[in-house]
Amino acid sequence: MLTALDLHRIGSEAVSHNVLNSGVDFLRAALDRWDGNASFVKSSDTFDRHRNLRQTDLRKVEKFHDQILERKGPRSTFHSTYERPFNKTLARKKKYHKKDEVVLGELGNSIQGQKQYYRLCRGEDLRVIDVTSRLYCRYVTNGSPLYKIGPLRMEVQSLDPYVVTLEEVVTPSEAADLVDASARYLMRSSTIRANGGSAESFMRTSSTAWMLDSDLPVLSELTHRIEQIAGVNAQQNRGAEMYQVVNYGVGGHYTVHHDYIDKGLINNRIATFLVYLKDVPQGGRTVFPWVGTGVRPKRGSALLWYNMNRVGMPDSRLQHGACPVLLGDKWVINKWIFYGGQLHTLPCGPEKKGDTIRQPQA
Ligand SMILES: O=C(O)CCC(=O)C(=O)O
């Protein structure tokens, strides 16, 4: 069990990183534990002196929390506070009683996106019943002999933009093999910068291993399955990128971002096929702030969405993020499908503005 001192240290550390909401919580818990231990303390003078110091610390931090909240709002990349101040007079201000607005179906500003990301990470669903009531599950073969006898269970998570989950795309033993084989190649993940380079960032705290289709039989098999299910060319180099395995520890996350990249049309990522290689006991959802929903990692299941439409226009509604892992760890494998790889296989046709390339069929 954590002692009062442990709790106090964690609280102080949180405060020093501007995580003021949790900082206050831990400092308060330290004080409560201190009081709980009062009967074991021999010298009441020393006890009172320490207690008063801790109480003063807590008050100071609460005051600091309120000042930051007033000046900067509840969250940025660099700080977090509660939505309302501790001070009762401040808490009466109108701005602390506004109903949280939700922006869906279009790209809002990044602060709104972050707010919605946090709400989805807490397990909320931001959509209205009119939208959710049209969703459905069905078995799909996509006309492929591979799935004729054992069709895949597909659940539509969003119709527009189109996002689906597919169950049991890899078996538990294949998932375990993929985790084992990639573990030794893991390196700290990076993100792509505006200048085309890449760098480590607090926005993405995970480790990554790049794997070739030829590295393991299960990888070339998975490519074949992706092609059959999604009806795309997923062959490495021409049709898709190498596989990227990602491992998140406790607290590991990836804030809101999009998968399409600014390096021309041909090698841009028209679709993302992401497979969960493990269950995550708590946290770690993949969430779509502008769609208003998220998916809980389930071993063997895949998530498929289209980052661009058929004419190559990016769809910014497909921004997404990986929520912090709260318990256990998280393993996923990404296959990003290239726009250029589909040019010779997709029929041209009259397209509606939002048309995706191909959707799995029953
Ligand atoms: O881990 C996830 O749930 C999402 C991963 C992701 O967005 C990415 O690797 O680009």
Produce the secondary structure layout.
Layout: H1 4-16, H2 20-36, H3 44-72, H4 88-91, H5 110-121, H6 129-132, E1 137-140, E2 152-158, E3 163-166, H7 172-183, E4 187-188, E5 191-192, E6 198-199, E7 207-211, H8 217-230, E8 243-248, E9 254-257, E10 269-276, E11 282-283, E12 286-288, E13 293-295, E14 302-306, E15 320-322, E16 325-327, E17 330-338
Helix pairs in contact: 1-2, 2-3
The structure holds 2-oxoglutaric acid.
2-oxoglutaric acid (AKG) binds near residues 246, 274, 286, 322 and 332.
Instruction: Classify the helix fraction into a percent range.
Output: 25-40%
Rounded Rg: 24 Å
H/E order of the elements? HHHHHHEEEHEEEEHEEEEEEEEEE
CATH topology of the largest domain: Jelly Rolls
CATH 2nd-level architecture of the largest domain: Sandwich
Compounds present?
2-oxoglutaric acid
Are there runs of 5+ residues with pLDDT below 50, and where?
none
Lateral strand order in the biggest sheet:
1-2-3-14-10-17-8-7-4
SS strand fraction: 15-25%
**Quick one: CATH superfamily of the largest domain?**
q2cbj1_9rhob like domain
**DSSP summary: helix tally:** 8
How can the largest sheet be summarized?
9 strands, antiparallel
How many discrete domains? 2
Mean pLDDT: 91
Organism: Penaeus vannamei (Whiteleg shrimp)
GO molecular function: iron ion binding; L-ascorbic acid binding; procollagen-proline 4-dioxygenase activity
Domain Fe2OG dioxygenase: 239-339
Pfam families: 2OG-FeII_Oxy_3
Short description:
With 362 residues, the protein is of the alpha+beta class. The chain has 8 helices and 17 strands.
